[in-house]
Structures are given as structure tokens and as C-alpha cells.
Design a protein that fits this description.
Ribosomal Protein S5, domain 2, single chain, 4-stranded mixed beta sheet, 193 residues
Length: 193
Amino acid sequence: MREAKISRKTAETDIELYLNLDSGKRSGIKSGSAFLDHMLNLFQSHAGIELSLACKGDTEIDFHHSMEDIAIVLGSALNQALGDKKGIERFGFYFAPMDESLARAAIDFSGRSAYVLRGNLPAKIGEMESSLWEHFFKSLAENAKMNLHIELLYGQDGHHCMEAIFKALARAVAMAIGKGKNTDEIPSTKGVL
């Protein structure tokens, strides 16, 4: 089973996360933000994975610490669950519309982090400023050790824009963690990722 269980406790957050890349079971997500819960539920559903998350954070200050630490833990869990990455597709890409919004995501579980976001996010999405979402995706890419390219091609409604992004990302992850052409090999000419 490609799975990971990670606990992270700091002075700012207390997080428990379970990830199973081979189970499509829907698990509970309690991030402290109903909107982020909605996005992570979309993510687990469209990626075809099981994700369980409980986060207690210092939300009386704001949601920055919770957002960052959830991304750190989720990225670390993806990296851990993939192991040596033998037999995976490695690359994934997807376009996803959500009403008037259209987003695309392209990823590479390369063992190196890179993050690019193109497009103009609305100033506020859910209860959070767009800068928090950008920080979330950057922290996710760094800790998953993946290249993550996201583009919001167009959209007006903040909810729809972020939903399109999360659906595109989830489907790209589903493709990248799937079986590659050479199921007994690490998908790299270097022999290691």
C-alpha cells in the first residue's frame, strides 16, 4: 500500500494526516476552514485517493499557519507514500472548467521542487486572501518534491476559480501516481527520483 501517516505539532498547529494513494475511500477533513475542507474533499475525490486530516491551529490570529502547515504535511505525505516512485507515470496534467472559470495544472514528481502560478487570482477566495493560496501551493510543491505549474486561464468567481484549480491539480496527481509504461522501473534516465 502506498500510504503515509504524518503528525506535526508546533506552537501554532497540531495536525494529523493520513493519505492512501490506492484507496478511493472518502475520509473526514477538518482543517479549521470550511472552504479549505471543501477544496481538499474535491482533491481526494478527483485524485481517487483517501485523505484524512485534522488540524487545530491558531486561527484566532489568522489562517496563515494552518494553511502553510497543512500544505507541508500533505506534500510530505505525497512524497512519503510514493516511495522510490518505481512504476508510476511521474508526469500529470489536466484542464478543468468550473462554470465560467478554467484552470490547468501540470506536475512532475521529479524529486525536485519548482512552483509556478500564472493568472490573476481574485483578491479573496473563501475567507482567505489569494496570497495564502499561493503560499499553500508553493509549500505543497516544496514538500512533495514536485514541479507544480498552475494556470488560471480565466474566471471571475473566486470559489469557481479555486475549485477549477483544485480539480485540475487532483486529476494531474491521479495521472502522475498511476501506473507508467515500465511498471518495474523508476521513470527516470538517472535511475532515481
